[in-house]
Amino acid sequence: MGSSFRAFLNSPVGPKTAHFWGPVANWGFVAAGLADMRKPPEMISGNMTAVMCVYSALFMRFAWMVKPRNYLLLACHASNEAVQLCQLSRWAKGNGFEVTQRRG
């Protein structure tokens, strides 16, 4: 086994820890959100999508503040935040909400 791989294996965020497997499992949220992009906006739950946005925002902060910093978790939740905000936008447009630009 190479020393770099051994160092990763035994690191505080390596595959022997929840700091690794938690984010790996959370990529499922991103995959599900991307798969749901094919569904019509009427199928999107605005409440659940908003909850997922808050959830990912909170876990992005957690990933940044926890020691050692968990960049894998941060990337996962940043990706999920982007996907969920896109879904929330699709839901809003599908339900007649319009974003108007204020001039002045």
Automatic annotation (TrEMBL):
Keywords for the protein's UniProt record, in alphabetical order: Membrane, Mitochondrion, Mitochondrion inner membrane, Pyruvate, Transmembrane, Transmembrane helix, Transport
Physiological role: Mediates the uptake of pyruvate into mitochondria.
Signal peptide range in chain numbering: none
Annotated TM spans: 44-64
Name of the featured protein: Mitochondrial pyruvate carrier
Location(s) in or outside the cell: Mitochondrion inner membrane
Domain of life of the source: Eukaryota
Chief localisation class: mitochondrion
Biological source species: Stylosanthes scabra
Family listed: Belongs to the mitochondrial pyruvate carrier (MPC) (TC 2.A.105) family.
Listed Pfam families: MPC (PF03650)
